[in-house]
Specification:
- By secondary structure, this protein is mostly helical.
- Helix content is 75%, strand content 0%.
- It has a domain of 177 residues.
- The chain is globular, with a radius of gyration of 19 Å.
Length: 258
């Protein structure tokens, strides 16, 4: 079996992530109302076009299911229990999350970040039987031990938390709160970047260096945004934070793949 994930694996993953995103936006609006302080323009946009998004999400979910059932290897099913746990935990935290805009939903962000990392990683891991993938719960659990998974998961968590921390700092006039929000993002980004650099240098065979250099790039870009965020609007920061996860992909692809 070719170890490179085929196109339909990427499509199934992308559609699934989008369906979860839409469901989360619509759930937020349904629970809190479009006038809630925690609801932003992206929530209100989904509320205004609720019917269209529901139809689109249903169609996307159907296509994703068909791709999994008819195109993905049978081994993918062994990963679904953990994936389902992440998704259920995410929506439970969404249902019971505090509506206070002064509280940052760290637990939800951690689950969301690692859920995305797991979904992305399992799509690759299932095509790599030599690394433990190939059809057992052991393979799914083994996946979560890889330092690549942990680093990518932390980067996703920090990417999601960055917006919450920036918004929280903007709402506060207390310099101590602003300083705490600054440290809450800059410190883990620095540690993640340092860990990625160490892991890259320790890989003398250079098989994982492109990946860890990509993680380092993502952490550095988020750190730059964190230090220069006063120059941008919050909407611009949202776009730039997403771009900070896309640019590392270009860095990864620029290296020769072993």
């Amino acid at each position: 079996m070719d170890s490179t994930p085929p196109w339909y694996a990427h499509v199934a993953l992308g559609l699934t992530v989008w369906v979860i995103y839409v469901a989360d936006r619509l759930l937020d609006v349904s629970l809190r109302g479009s006038d809630s302080e925690r609801c932003e323009e992206r929530h209100r946009f989904h509320a205004r076009h609720r019917k269209t998004f529901l139809i689109g999400a249903a169609a996307a979910a159907l296509v994703a299911v068909l791709l999994v059932v008819f195109r993905m290897p049978f081994a993918i099913y062994s990963y679904f229990l953990i994936a389902g746990f992440f998704v259920v935990a995410f929506f439970i935290l969404s249902l019971f999350s505090n509506d206070d805009p002064q509280r940052i939903p760290y637990a939800k962000n951690v689950v969301a970040g690692f859920a995305f990392a797991y979904g992305t990683a399992m799509t690759v891991h299932v095509f790599l039987p030599s690394l433990g993938g190939g059809g057992s719960m052991g393979g799914a659990l083994e996946l979560m031990k890889f330092r690549e998974f942990v680093c990518f998961g932390v980067l996703c968590v920090l990417n999601i938390s960055a917006i919450d921390l920036w918004e929280h700092a903007n709402r506060s006039t207390d310099p101590e709160v602003k300083a705490a929000d600054e440290i809450a993002l800059s410190l883990p980004l620095t540690l993640l970047g340092a860990a990625a650099l160490v892991f890259a240098l320790l890989d003398h065979e250079m098989t994982t260096r492109p990946f860890f250099y990509a993680i380092l790039t993502g952490a550095a870009l988020l750190q730059i945004l964190n230090r220069t965020r006063s120059r941008f609007s919050m909407e611009s920061l949202r776009v730039l934070a997403d771009a900070a996860l896309l640019v590392p992909l270009l860095v990864f692809l620029a290296f020769p793949q072993n």
